Amino acid sequence: MIKTRLFIARHGKTMFNTIGRAQGWSDTPLTQEGERGIEELGLGLKAAGLHFVAAYSSDSGRTLQTMEIILRELAQENIPYKRDKRIREWCFGSLDGGYDAELFNGVLPRVFDKPVEELAYKDMADAIIAVDTAGWAESWEVLRNRILSGFTDIAKEVESHGGGDAIVVSHGMTIGTLMGLIDPSLPRSLALDNGSICQVTYEDGQFHIDAIGDMSYRQKGRKILEEEVHERA
């Protein structure tokens, strides 16, 4: 029986990532460094012999741009590709675009009067709602349900077509939330790097974590690019 596996990538490094701003549902494009990092990822996935049967991303510009680069480097631009707004990043409401340090080390800890490291995802969602003056932020129930249903439906669709490997591009906190929902014993902050891979297997209606924050594909791709530069020199 063919397994159903999701290779979930965090999007490439963006302008806001570079200057330390929280993006949420706001968006900025990948930087030149971010594009190169995803080229590394695509090349590393190809070198590992991976062949994807389908592709999925959130509907944010940074994930669409990331997926375009991955599929190009894999030479798999023509595989089935869908966008799903349920695997978007968390919405920070009126705090979207604010500095990370102010949001995560200032505003949110003050709501519960404890360090951000001690806040669970539910605490963070509650804190964001408490300080969001626009009324756009999502409750924990809405967040967990949309994230879990989004990834579950993706896995079910791949499984219904015979299984295999699918590439998925999403966002740091969204991916971290999924990992925590699969395995509640994991620490809340996984610090997933841009272009890292979290790999999960979907079997008998359940997710099983195979890897978290795997940077080996990017590292392999970087070596390939460096060798190409050396050969041209």
TrEMBL record:
Q: Which SMART domains match?
A: PGAM (SM00855)
* UniProt-listed SUPFAM superfamilies: Phosphoglycerate mutase-like
State the Pfam families in the record. His_Phos_1
Look up the domain of life of the source: Bacteria
User: Which InterPro entries does the annotation name?
Assistant: His_Pase_superF_clade-1 (IPR013078), His_PPase_superfam (IPR029033), PGM_Phosphatase (IPR050275)
PANTHER family for this protein: BROAD-SPECIFICITY PHOSPHATASE YOR283W-RELATED (PTHR48100), PHOSPHOGLYCERATE MUTASE 2 PARALOG (PTHR48100:SF9)
Q: Give the protein's recorded name.
A: Histidine phosphatase family protein
Organism source for this protein?
A: Streptococcus dentapri
